[in-house]
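Quick one: structure for this chain?
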Amino acid sequence: MPPVDKEIRRSRPAMRLLLLLLGSLALGQPHAETSPLPYESEYQAARKTYRAHRYQDSARMLEALLKAHPDCARCAHLLGKSYGRLAQRANWLSAMDLARKTCSAFELAVRLDPKDEGALEDLIRYYRAAPEFLGGGADKARVMEQRLKGLKAGQ
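Got it. Here's what it folds into:
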């Protein structure tokens, strides 16, 4: 059996846990920016679509919004949540791809807005739950936890 197949088989319980985590991540709200942005109405439409449980549609809207406005941290955060919800409903192989996309979107959100505690918390939960081959890891989580601790101490 190829090594990847063994890794996938060993990680099935971790994948179940990850799918549960992705569902819980989707419950929180992305960080709200204080001033209205030129694309605010598009973002709000994507957010409304997400809240209506139309995750595929919200993911498409947010992908397009991020392409047009690559500095939109809220868009990246909500995109990660949309991918997470899609992963919950997907087959095994699709769920792994969506989990990686979830991780990438959360990482982008944190890069774009390093002070967004909600995005940091979601990224930490992802890192804690996901196996390393899906971008997770306890070491990564600890680094982000220290960062979050520093943010909270500075308030």
